[in-house]
Structure formats: C-alpha cells, structure tokens
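Dear Dr. L.,

I hope this message finds you well. Following up on our conversation about the binding site, I have prepared a predicted three-dimensional model of the protein together with 5'-deoxyadenosine. For your records, I am including the exact sequence and ligand specification that went into the calculation, followed by the structure tokens. Please feel free to forward this to your student if that is useful.
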Amino acid sequence: MDLGLILNKEELTREEIIFLLSLTGNEEINALFGRADEVRRQFSGDEVHLRGIIDFSNFCEQNCIYCGLREENFSITRYRMTPEEIIETAKIISNEGIYTVVLQSGEDSFYDTDMISYIIYSIKQNTNLAVTLSIGERRFDEYKAWKIAGADRYLLKHETSDEKHYFAYHNRQRLYDRINHLRYLKQIGYQVASGSLIGLPMQSIENIADDILLCKELDVDMAAFGPFIPVPFTPYKSHKQGSVELTLKTIAAARLVLKDVHIPATTALDSIDKEGREKGLKCGANVVMPDFTPHPYREKYIIYPGKRGIAEDPLSAHKMIKRRIEAIGRKISASRGDTLKKNTPSI
Ligand code: 5AD
Ligand code: SF4
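The resulting structure of the complex is given below.
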C-alpha cells in the first residue's frame, strides 16, 4: 500500500485503517501524525476545548473486568457527592472559564431520575455550562427526562466493538444494548461520545480498526481512545499496559476517518507518558478534560492507578494543564465546543 496516497484519501477502507495502525517505521508514523494534525486543524482549528470533569460517585453496579471501580473491587473506599457539592463544583468550573461540565460516575442508581434532573437543571440555572452526562447505561425514559432538564451531551464508550470480547469484559452487559443506547441518545438530540480502550487483553489491530469504524457508523460527535492500564485487585491486574504508540496511532487514524469529531488527549494517556497530552494533541486530538473533583473524593476515583494530577489541588492541576497546552502553541477555546458536525442543532 502507498502511505502517501492513503493519507490523502477522502474515505479509508478497513484494510487501509489496519495498515495505518500497523505502521512501524518512525518516518511513516510521523507522516501519519503530521497528516492527522493537519486534518485536525482543518476541521477544528488550533483551539483546545476543555471539559471540566466532576467524578461525583465511585459506586458502581457493573463489574467490568478491567476497571478499578468494578463492584467486586472491595479494596477501594466508596464515596458519593451531594447534589449541592456537585452544583458548587460546577460553578467553580464555570468561573475558571470552562464551558462544559462532565458529570461522571460509576453506574450508581442511588442517583435516581429526579436527582440527576435536579442537578442538571440547577447547573443550567446557575451557569452557562454545557452539561455532559457520563453515568453509564440507564433507562431510555431517564435519558429523555435529563435531556428535558437541560443535558446537552452523553459520553458512553462502547469499549470494544467485538461482541465476544465485549461479553468477556462485561458479562452483565451486551454490545447490542450499548449500541442501541448510543443510537437512542443521538436520536433524541444528545451530542454523543463513544470510543474504546486500547491494549485490552485479546484485542487485535483489526478490532481497533472496527472500533473506529463503529464510531463512524454511529456518527459520534466525540471519539475517545485511551490506553488500558492494569489495576490491582482486578482480574487483569497482571496484564500488559496498552501502548502509548498504538494509542497515538489510533487517535491519528480516527482523525483521518472521522474528521469532524472531537477527540480528547485522555488523562489515561497522560498517566502513562509524562508528555501524553502533548503527544495526543499533536496527532489529532483537540480536547482535554481536566479533573475538578474536589478533595477528599478526587483521590478515591481510582479507575486505574497512577492517575495524573490526582494528588494536586484541582485548580493548580488545571493551571498546569493550560500552561502545557499553550506551551505547544495551541489556544484554550472560549466557546462551548459543541459538535463540529454541520446541520446539527448545537443547543
Ligand atoms: N485503564 C484505562 N481506562 C479504563 N477505564 C476503565 N478501566 C480502565 C483501565 N483499567 C475507562 C473505560 C471507561 C471509563 C470509566 O474508564 O474506558 O469508559
Ligand atoms: Fe463501572 Fe464504568 Fe468501571 Fe464498568 S468501566 S466498572 S461501568 S465505572
């Protein structure tokens, strides 16, 4: 295959995506990253959109095999933030000049339909923030209620597009349902984010190409790819960590395939490489998601060990992230950073 030709094609085939993900030579990989950087600039400019995260509960009713928050991990201390604490933290995020809050938790039914609606509504009343929910699979009527309460976006990663692997990683859940939830969310007007983990046991390069293609099929507004990091006290504790290089190649290939989407340089990537964010931003990513969860909860949201910035004060960690973004010549966006897709209502 001719790399130069592929990098400039409008539409990539599955085989061509696999070819890109399999590149090994430095020169070739740099050509891929350079082209992804160009496509990013063309569709999203030099602005980096910040999304302030509040990890408001680390209780989880699921048992995903790779995750530190899984129900059967009895080694961690669980916490729940009150609606008032969550709303106050959202105000801090807004005062920092950020335009999106991500309300994130394990799957925790303690927060019922009305509680989540109340939190969304109060944030919308008190700030100009776009609200993203990242709270797992819930009932369809709840998605609808939260949309009416003012939620703008929903983050629900498909984690893997291989049905058998999906069942092996999450034996209480099915890929078919996850896809239906994502379709429904999109249909009722949410801007939707999905994505997958890179480097999970059993995963092949072909699987990753299919993960990117599933994001395309679902017409997602944001696609997130982060490396798998092994977690003590979970079944995958002794497995190998996902590779930085493969994660970056995935981000770059995703940018070439998906074009007008947001792609984050994830905290997981930054946690396994001290320049992870910069590297991600230079090969296709245009979003960073700083963690605003206050102490003493912050240090307890341990999806994986070694999470970057967890020991620091949220405001100083945020300042450092901004400095790093500006140091590579990128600007912090002063807009909500809604979907890049044309013909989609943004509010
Ligand atoms: N390493 C990296 N990311 C993980 N996630 C869960 N477990 C891990 C891990 N061990 C990610 C998943 C999920 C989110 C809650 O965190 O992709 O969507
Ligand atoms: Fe729970 Fe999400 Fe972790 Fe699965 S990945 S155990 S749903 S927090």
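In brief: Residues 26-44 form the longest helix (19 residues).

With kind regards,
A. P.
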